[in-house]
Amino acid sequence: MPNLLERRKDWNSPTPENFGLPIEIWRETIARRQRYLELKTKLKNGEITELNDFITYNLNIRQFAQDALEFYEGSDFIEAFYNAIEKITILDPACGSGAFLFAALNILEPLYEVCIKRMREFIDPEKLNSFKSFQDIISDIDKHQNPTYWIYKKIILNNLYGVDIMPEAVEIAKLRLFLKLAATAKASPKLPNLGLEPLPDIDFNIRCGNTLIGYTTHQQIKTAFECDINGQVKMVVDDSMVLIDGMIEELQGVLRGYKANQLLNNSVGLHADKQNIKDRLAEIKESLDFFLARDYGIDNEKLAAWKSSHQPFHWFTEFFHIINNGGFDVIIGNPPYVEYSKVKSDYLIKNYETESCGNLYAFVIEVSLKLLNNFGKQGFIVPISLVCKQRMANLQSIFLKNTSTWQSNYAERPSKLFSGAEVLLTISIVDKNSDKGHFSTGLRKWSSDERNVLFDNTEYKSVANHRLRNYIIPKLSSNLEQSFMCKIFSSDETI
To answer: Which of 92, 220, 286, 449 could form a disulfide with 22, with the two C-beta atoms 3.0–4.6 Å apart?
Structure first.
């Protein structure tokens, strides 16, 4: 091409505001617009067909879902989508003050709202059985003075779950959700109690305990009950496991009724039901704590001190209705970036494949993958060591096996993802039910002026065939870098 250097001499100069994004140079503007045209072509040709494609090409999944609900002409999709989102379970296993749960609430609310809006449009008031399932849903909603309050309340009770080791953080998380609810309340002086509905009780959704210590699955509990104090299988297995299973199932039945009555504003027996649930949970927890302490070699004299320091949390019993049905649909969060050596004096973990990784965030990722159902997705903000440190080999081996992953990488200078994060970070997404590939970005260095477009401008590149020795996942920011990597490594080679 003639005069190529002359024509490209301004590529590294800033793009004028009316053409580019903040602090963008012409080279970046041209690459972004080329990518836009590529994506537009793929969408037009029907090449983007799966949810994972939306992640890989960094499309707005929530907006797509909302638009599909808004403009789809049939009722079948509306009904199926509503039935799906009211059952979706979202967990933050180290929820802190609840920032991620709060974000999930704000994503789900407009989706609920558009579903309800479309249901009303389908119902013909002149036909008694017109869209009967929609009529039943709308009838329940219309019993409430404030539909928006009801939507938030339903999401908080049915969709959101969190655990944290700090009691203060748990209370703050619940308070944030309550304040969000209270902000939607509208007083009506002519109605009883000014038309205001009671706040939901989410003590059984947002729990206090140690995410890393406790029985996660039914099999773990069964194994504990079937072995004696020396870890040998008992010659005669007693009925303890059958008793525990029965207690848990009965407990969760009471809990489902407790939540349902809150949505119906039926206060009859709520206090007694809550006390019943608390008593049963305490009874089950006492038995499980005893068996877990035995695994740690703790006798009865030291049991109380061990429970105080380790704060065991038994996932299978606390969230039986979710774990017993396969696990959570979505797990998100910002787990602690703490070296294991710093907490060993407080508590010890056992039977973790990632113990050699030496950081609590690795342990949280491992337990979270066990808590996910087979179709679940996980998203965490963690240190960039996840993708570039040899000591994370065991963790990578777990989540790179029979999954699809997306790793976007961010510097801490000149700007950082959030205050207090003085390390390079990776936003790690894992799809447990996919093996379509592994994707990564370059190391994003950005200024505060770019914050509003930072994630919109994220671009993933496939690294499926270029995982290097020592468990380093390449950070690729462009087609050119990806092309270089392809030339350096054959599909079967590592260095």
So the answer is: 449
